[in-house]
Amino acid sequence: MRKYVVKCPKCGEVQDPYALHCKNGDALLRTEYSKKQIEPADLPGIWRYIDWLPVNGIIEEGTGRPVTYKSEGFAKELGLNDLNITFNGYWPEKEAFIKTCSFKDLESFPTMQRLIERDEERIMVVASAGNTARAFAHVASITGQKLLLIVPKNSIHRLWTTNDDTSSICTVTVEGDYYQAIAMAEKIAAKEGFVSEGGARNVARRDGMATVMLDAVLTTGSLPQHYFQAVGSGTGGISVWEASMRLLEDGRFGNNMPRLHLAQNLPCAPLYSLWTGMELTGRCPEEMHDDVLYNRKPPYSASGGVKDALDDTNGIIYGITNKEAEDAQKLFEETESIDILPAPGVACAALIKAVETGEINDDDSIVLNITGGGQKRLEEDFATKQLDVGLSVSPEDPDSEKKILGKVSEFFYKGGY
Ligand SMILES: Cc1ncc(COP(=O)(O)O)c(C=O)c1O
């Protein structure tokens, strides 16, 4: 029996396991695993959840995974009795070993493993506002897979690594925002010799992020009533919804579909705007607490996308101001004694808001996804180095594609391709 099939949730047709689109429409394809009850494996990192990852082997160096623990400090501050934190980052005292300090490693490792299983020789193209690029650079520096990163110029401070060998990574910056980096990456990925990692449409990325809910539920023993996360594309929200469906079918963790509480950073909050119908104006992404949360084209209305996830879970989206996010981040860091990235500060603020508005009760079971943290903690243990930028292009430059292809040829093939 096959370990899994990739199916369209709308038309029900089984598709090629590596397909990114349904032949019959725009739905996000979904993995269906033969094994209906998950058994944690004695493997490092997220591979512990290999039963529900669309891979057959593992990358052993990928030892990071989400770690769930019951909050005391932050919970007490908010008056909550069952707040569980799923921490994605570096915090060895809690056995958290994600060395890029964000949950994007949960996506990059299974995606890379699938490329290996497919004997993929082409150059993988990744567009990112920073944390995703760092996660893909990390795994590529381990496996040696050729990687072209396309990132907005103002995100380069996030492109650091703890690994020495970065010879398989070519980095290009775009003078523009994340959307312009995505648009450029799409053009390059469509050319011969390149492969796109697929973004929200890649089941390996989503099932990798789904391990947040798997870890939370296997640690606490039951599906939570509420799940909080800061979102840009909302892919993490879709992923935990899909994980919850599998856990419901598993049958051992209760009958409760967790309610999604997604949080966006105002005023640059396209998902919040789509969901509320409210028009927002502001200088985006400059005016944000964390610009990794700005995605101008999130997968909202496609079948199996963010809207379906919210509808099915009676979900809610919060609009969070910079001040609210800053205060919440500070409170979390002080009460839990670990540094976190700015993005999860937005999720912390949403949780505070939910308590204040009565969306949740003191005794409700809650999972708070800290999507990134421990960077300061990591710097105590490891030296980090910035990735070199090979080229900078402007989206207005009609020769930008040509320049990127020239750079790639020089970087990987010494100009000979
Ligand atoms: C730390 C962190 N949290 C949350 C998000 C939002 O994730 P998504 O765009 O999948 O919704 C990102 C995106 O890059 C991130 O880096």
TrEMBL record:
It comes from the Archaea. GO terms for molecular function: cysteate synthase activity. Keywords: Coenzyme M biosynthesis, Pyridoxal phosphate, Transferase. It holds the Pfam family PALP. Residues 90-372 form the Tryptophan synthase beta chain-like PALP domain. SUPFAM superfamilies: Tryptophan synthase beta subunit-like PLP-dependent enzymes (SSF53686). InterPro entries: Cysteate_synthase, TrpB-like_PALP, TrpB-like_PALP_sf. It is an enzyme of class 2 (transferase). Its cofactor is pyridoxal 5'-phosphate. Its EC number is 2.5.1.76. This is Cysteate synthase. PANTHER family: SERINE / THREONINE RACEMASE FAMILY MEMBER (PTHR43050), SERINE RACEMASE (PTHR43050:SF1).
